[in-house]
Amino acid sequence: MRVSELSRRSGVSIPTIKYYLRDGLLPPGRATAANQADYDESHLRRLRLIRSLIGVRGLSVSATKDVLAAVDEHLGDVHVLLGLVLGVVPAEHPGTPDEPDDSGRADTAGLSEVAALTAELGWKTSPHPPAALVLAETLETLRVLGVDFDWRSLLPYAELADRTAALDLDQLQVAGDPLEQAERAVLLTVLLEPALLALRRLAQEHHSRRRYGG
Amino acid sequence: MRVSELSRRSGVSIPTIKYYLRDGLLPPGRATAANQADYDESHLRRLRLIRSLIGVRGLSVSATKDVLAAVDEHLGDVHVLLGLVLGVVPAEHPGTPDEPDDSGRADTAGLSEVAALTAELGWKTSPHPPAALVLAETLETLRVLGVDFDWRSLLPYAELADRTAALDLDQLQVAGDPLEQAERAVLLTVLLEPALLALRRLAQEHHSRRRYGG
Question: Which residues of chain B does A187 touch, with a Cβ-Cβ cutoff of 8 Å?
């Protein structure tokens, strides 16, 4: 396909595609004339993945370049691929996550509680997932505010999150190509976040009406 | 209790408490001397609710004043009370939500899909919940990005959100006093949002490793 069709089918403007080509994010097409090239479905899939990493996950062009280089090396390993595009695994050393920069933010008590939670659930995660810090900070904030809510209170929520994540993984299996699967993972993980919170709010109102409504 | 103890037990500084007293957010204590007053548990509960509305929900002092005035009128109606502090019901006319300012943002197709979803689930909500707009916008964004995901794909997620909301409501029943229940509702709804998304991320990694890990 010509660059105009690539633009139309990807939703990425021609100047932006040319910038990605110059910058090496997108490999060159097959030259067909002095100033023309032919692109195929693999360009389209890669461009759609780039768009999701920059436009939806909010990565910089340079971080996207690192992720794509790592993705190219691990195309056959779906678990590493998903970790890379979702930011669980750093692009520099896939498979061996770094120590996080922000390990000092949550105190040891909070992180031990999160370790107890994941152990109880039997979840195996990478050594320092950013999400564990978020959980530790939430538990500490609730404690500071005097709310009686510890990691055990999170257990039933975690069991529902477990089933939510299983649904997420089911949604990815419809895409056969690894780059398509990676793109879907970014879109359906990041874009569904506000939607899942919105569903909870609607359901809260429904349950509140059922329990307390006139 | 003296203002110093009220400050210690609420986590709100004495100058801020004095500001709330001058501004009428907090009713005056019982005067015990020329420049001293005595405060009771009802002051503490109200102050904690004020702190959660301003510090956690991010309301302005003036919006908090409106919510508190409406709360005072509806202390006996837990459903309206929760709707008020969570922002489902506008403080100006509790029980009859306004047309939203932003009704033009999502097109009719998205909102009809959300209406089909809530009907299928049997959820009864107020006429124009902000959360419905979020859902409509998510469905439209996914459609624009070429992802095959419609309101029916949201159904299994909504069923898990329904169970999450039931847990949320269970957490409120431990608080007997209406103001305490309202405070807990704000804290456990707003502060748990990033934690629930973090649990989903950890569970995604766990499921990805189980399905695709080496």
Answer: 142, 145, 147
Alpha helices in A122-150 (DSSP H): 130-144
* Whole-number Cα distances in Å, A148 to A20, A61, B174: 51, 44, 10
This prediction's pTM: 0.88
Element holding A36 (H helix, E strand)? strand A36-38
The string of pLDDT tens digits covering residues B149-165 is: 999 999 999 999 999 99
State whether residue B30 is helix, strand or coil.
Answer: strand
pLDDT digits (tens, 9 = 90+) for A40-96: 999 999 999 999 999 899 999 999 999 999 999 988 888 988 989 888 877 776 555
Q: At what angle do helices A130-144 and A108-121 cross, to 10 degrees?
A: 120
Q: DSSP 3-state assignment of B33?
A: strand
* Chain B residues closer than 8 Å to A111 by CB: none
Could B205 and A125 be called an inter-chain contact, meaning their C-beta atoms sit closer than 8 Å? yes
H-run or E-run covering B32: strand B30-33
